[in-house]
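Weekly structure sync, notes
Attendees: PL (lead), two postdocs, one rotation student
Agenda item 3: pending single-chain targets
PL asked that the sequence for the first pending target be pasted directly into the notes so everyone works from the same version. It is reproduced below exactly as submitted, 306 residues in total.
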Amino acid sequence: MLVALLLLAAAFIIQTVYIMYYRKQIRDIGNQLSFISKHNSFKFIQTQIKPKEISRLIDLCNTLLRNQRELNQEFIKKSEEINATIVSLSHDIRTPITSLDGYLQLAKRSEDFKEKTQYVVMAETRIKQINTLVDELFLYTKLQNPDYSLELEPIDIMNVLKRCLFSFIEAFSRNGDEPNLNLPESSIYIRGNESALERVYENIIRNYFLHGKGVLTIRYEEKENEVLFHFTNLLKQSQLINFDKIFTRFYKEDPSRTNHSTGLGLSIVKSLIDKMNGSVHADLKGNQFCISVALIKTEKGNEDVR
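Predicted structure, written out during the meeting:
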């Protein structure tokens, strides 16, 4: 009987010590969490002796801390991007607005009809630039919505390309270099959206006029289940391209920002191509810059929408 009582007493003492130890561990974890929260510390929960249950609790706490820090870093990154976006847009919109105001003031003061007309034409050019900036921003914002989709159908890609090239005929004439076209005569059908495809071509060609020089070469290539178009041109001497960022928003390789570009053009190209289940990439060989667009080939009568 005495032995049983001694064993029971020993078990009680051990259990009490174990509970006190547990309480100490939990209190220590609480103190560490309080310190981390108060000081915004990057430390993790640590303890020298970890029973199984306490060890799992610490692992879960550290996982939560790690995830929270990753979210915080992502939030900081997004905040910096938003601030950079605001600065970029403010500059891009303010510059043509300032020029617009200046030309209107000059037109108002001028007494010569020809000179007044010239200032009005310049003001109209700035208005078009502002409309383009706002339009690109609106389209880019819309494309970032994961729920936004394009209605895909068989499109004659050659017809769209030729129509787009024709719309730039005056720009090519001013540039002094006609495009070098290596394209098939027959119609080629892809799964796409006609309006989106027009915008893709327009942005790529506009990018050539802003940043390229010499002749623009457009080459067609056909693979088993896709068609590719390669847009190749020389780069201006001062152009330095970061290919990791070329399709990201507001990317500009020209820090002087004198071309009134939002830096959204190629980002919109990539977003639209992605929506049409295609792909786009850029490459540089020597001084030859090339943008390649790949889209899914289809038959004219195939009306299934993806």
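Discussion points:
- The first helix runs from residue 2 to 39.
- Residues 2-73 form one domain.
Action: rotation student to compare against the earlier draft before next sync.
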